[in-house]
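Table 4 source record.
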Amino acid sequence: MFPAVRILPCRHRKSPFGCTHEWKVPTDWAAQRPSTAQAGPGWTTVTARDTAQTLTTPRFWVGLRLANTKTTPLTIGIDRVLFNAAGAHNALTIPTPEPLGQSTGQPFQIFGLAHRPLFRRPDTITPYDHLTVQVGVGKPPVWQTWTAVADLPPGPGQVYRVDPVTAEISFGSYDEQAKTGHGTVPPAGSQIRALSYKYVAGGVAGNVAPGQVTILGPTPGGGLPSGITAVTNLGPGLDGSDEEALDDTLRRAPDALKVRDRAVTAADYEFLAAEATTDVVIVRALPPRLQEADGAGNAWKKGDPWAFAGISRAPGTVNLVVVPDQGPAVPQPAPTPDLVREIQTYLDARRDLSARLTVIGPRYLPIIVKAEVTFFPQAPNSTADQNKVKADMLDKIKAFLHPARGGPDGRGWQVGQPVVVSDLFRAITPPEDTAFLSSLLVKPDIPVYHLPPLNPAGTTGNWSNLERPFALSDYGAAVRVADYELVCAAADNLHTITVILASS
């Protein structure tokens, strides 16, 4: 198996870049010599820093190219190179066929599986094809495999529907005498069973820490996999989510009737993305948008599509921003490639054929906070007390600005939602018997998504409108956010919390 390469998050200047990447090397990956000193292919555009150490032995190489050369240096590191690695999902397979019951011969029969919810296989238009339902007729029963369908077709047919959340199998109503109904009814007395299926066993509990997956299970055919002696997970489990709360399901019911499983409006795309998976907590559909005036230095013309942050907003395009909740320890959560493909596949089957849909991760705008906290004369004001209050305020700032868990209501931020000091004030104010906030200001840091050049001249002295539709503001009472941006906390060392001792 070819290895996967995981690149650590980079850091741009003072801001967390937050651009973890993971990919597999191409199938034609081959050994190369970095020098033409020996026969065989060599490199002509790369020279060794120390020519005395130039390698002539063929090696397998991974190259990283930095395009952002006009800004201060970026730091990039390789987290791990994984050989003999495979993606894994937190799902269990039933070990033996599961009896579901006996048919009464009546229409619209429903049989429940023992385990729920069903595992949704990513990257496929048939995510529940691991489920095999059979009907057995006679003694001993002769088993026939029936087919899962989204809707029961008119007339007879050995088909059934499955609800992956409730794990219920439902059959049809076709009447042979009246020649009416949809889908064949299993004969009276026939046995119904699930030959195999996978189900989700953990939800959020499946987001295990590194080194927790160590038990090597049997293959579907029985026995241990050939040639494998041990397994472990070098990284933590990610993106496991629990079932949707019943209140949230009931709240979405009117929208489900309105959308009817088709994406036409921006709201339809957002609703269906939430239908596709419970792994996303923030969804924003960006409709097409055109420039309303010519840009400075002929950066664009009036009527040109918006292209800020590398997002094309041309007519006929829909960009869907999705954000998972990866826990409070992840300050800039981003969807995995599997999650992006899962949502893209689900929506591709439901969108207008003329729409060009792209599912993307968030474009983060870090927020810097500057606060002055004044201690009352009678309050403990030792250095330790001051540091404790400052540390507590910093924790509250990071919690308030957490994309998926912060915000004024503690339910996360929305894409395009601005930051207002009055909301932040309520969230981070110190204990009222100890100190009070005498000043509080916010400003944006340079967005972590930017691409060079920073302005038409290619210099970094000023921030131009090439990368954002409006300039970055200085400290003030609010931060204006572009309609495609999502706020997050800037690096800890950028926040300023100044202590003032009130006079008695």
